[in-house]
Amino acid sequence: MKPLVADSNRTKLVISCRKWSLSCRDTATRSSPLVTVRQRLAGVFGGERRNDDGSADVPDHPVVTAVIWHGAHYLDFGYLRNPPKLRFWRTTRDDRGEIAMDWRHEDDGEIGFTTEPTVQLTVPTTAYLEAVHTLNRQLIDTMGQRVDELERRGGLPGVDLDLVYLRREHDDRRHWLAKNLDRSPKTDWNAVRQGSRLLLSDVQQADAPTG
Question: Which of 65, 69, 70 is nearest to 15 (CA)?
Fold first, then answer.
């Protein structure tokens, strides 16, 4: 697998996809996202002159494919207040594989983190997978201990808790990592790269001097 885009263009791709996503959210209540993709892109990047073929309003258009690919690589922290934005993607070159991480967070004065507001780093794929397995093992074991304790105590006073379902859910959760590691996404890399190039060219045109 070749790199999706050069390192120097990744930030521009992120900006382009974010602008596209914001435009979709702004108009989602007024029309179908797939019908007006081209118009939204034109509104985001300015002007009606487009580098696509004028059909970026269909589900399988490369621009749509690239934006969906980009959005699918976020780690969902929706259960947190003022959550960070954390993205991961994998790049392979020859026999080497790396996982890239992009962390961004705006401190609102109440929710903050000890790290910097923006962090980008890469680690070998083998090290990343080892860390994932370690975290999963520790998390599942700790949750299992809590389920064991609840079963010994017969639940919690004043709490309507289905212990049979809780045990069944936890036993099923033990297999989630293996199932996900077995999954092979059928990514259309040609469409993702083509859509990324279109998005990047839009950003470059918007940034170009006009005088």
Answer: 70
pLDDT value of position 164: 96
The model's pTM: 0.61
Token pair of 65 as six digits: 């494919």
Question: Where does residue 136 rank: exposed (0-12), middle (13-18), buried (19+ CB within 10 A)?
Answer: middle
Asked if residue 143 is part of any domain, the answer here is yes
| 210 exposure class (CB count in 10 Å sphere: 0-12, 13-18, 19+) | exposed
Q: Assess whether 117 and 135 both reside in one domain.
A: no
Q: How far is CA 25 from CA 15, 18, 21, 39, 196, in A?
A: 15, 11, 6, 14, 20
- Burial (CB count within 10 angstroms: exposed 0-12, middle 13-18, buried 19+), residue 93: exposed
Phi-psi group of 104: left, alpha or beta (phi > 0 → left; psi -120 to 50 → alpha; rest → beta): beta
**Which residues form the domain of 68?**
7-124+187-207
| Beta bridge partner(s), residue 85 | 104
> Could you identify the residue written with the tokens 């007024």?
30
**If you average pLDDT over every residue of the chain, what do you get?**
75
Higher pLDDT, 196 or 26: 196
Residues 30 and 115 in one domain: yes
Residues ≥6 apart with Cβ < 8 Å to 97 = 90, 91, 124, 125, 126
Provide mean pLDDT across the span 163-192.
92
Helices (H), the chain: 7-27, 37-45, 62-71, 125-153, 163-173, 176-182, 189-207
